[in-house]
Design brief:
This protein is of the alpha+beta class. The protein has five helices and ten strands, in the order αβββαααβββββββα.
């Protein structure tokens, strides 16, 4: 067979590489280049999710292995987003911090020395009409910062880093108020009834007590939630 007239090939060279082989070689070269210039543990945009895949928080992409992620960091999309983010931070950094907070309506985060956890009391409750189960939380904040109101947030098991491995059967309710440490209550991973009168919070500024009531949806509501044509539950009277 005549090898002399084949485009881009020399005798004994094995022929021209295919497109897939070229891409694989390019990704491997980019991975080696990234390994020499960066460490994954120090990358603020690198994140390993609960299924073992790697995510880029900057570009919102998912990668099956570290090599794919490292090759992505050397690509045009990631580099373009890095340049845009750097330009945005440089533009915002030129403004005075006080002016930035007033103009944009944002609150400047302060370094506050934590003084410990608040006292709390938990009561199990059941709605007498709907038979819904729930909890009533009472937290004491005698040294709370003036003008600050406690805030709550629900977090699933895969967002926290305290209990490893995460248990999908549980979720957490977080309560934050400066200068106290944020406390979390571990509850069942059931859907919370967020309708008016079911999930409510109230802060007694005189006694410095924070009250939170939460109720889980009934098993029927959880099972048929979002089913087309199903009549919604009647409001409590």
């Amino acid at each position: 067979m005549d090898y002399q007239n084949r485009a881009g090939s020399k005798f004994g060279g094995g022929g021209v590489a295919s497109a897939s082989a070229t891409n694989a070689d390019r990704r491997e070269r980019l991975r080696k280049l990234a390994l020499e210039s960066m460490e994954l543990d120090k990358d603020p945009f690198w994140f390993k999710n609960h299924v073992g895949a790697y995510e880029c928080r900057l570009c919102l992409t998912v990668h099956q292995n570290d090599g794919s992620y490292l090759a992505h960091t050397q690509g045009r999309k990631h580099q373009t987003n890095l340049a845009r983010r750097a330009a945005k931070e440089q533009k915002e950094g030129k403004q005075d911090a006080n002016t930035l907070g007033v103009n944009m309506g944002t609150q400047i985060r302060r370094n506050v020395v934590k003084i410990g956890r608040p006292g709390y009391k938990i009561t199990k409750i059941r709605d007498p009409l709907t038979r819904q189960l729930g909890f009533l939380y009472q937290l004491q904040y005698p040294e709370i910062t003036p003008g600050v109101k406690p805030r709550i947030r629900f977090m699933n098991a895969f967002e926290q880093r305290v209990e490893e491995p995460p248990d999908k059967n549980f979720q957490y309710m977080l309560v934050a108020a400066e200068p106290y440490e944020t406390c979390a209550f571990k509850i069942q991973a059931r859907e919370i009834d967020r309708r008016e009168g079911r999930l409510w919070e109230w802060f007694d500024e005189d006694n410095k007590e924070f009250w939170v009531q939460m109720l889980f949806k009934t098993e029927r509501e959880e099972r048929y939630s979002g089913v087309p044509g199903l009549a919604p539950s009647l409001p409590r009277r």
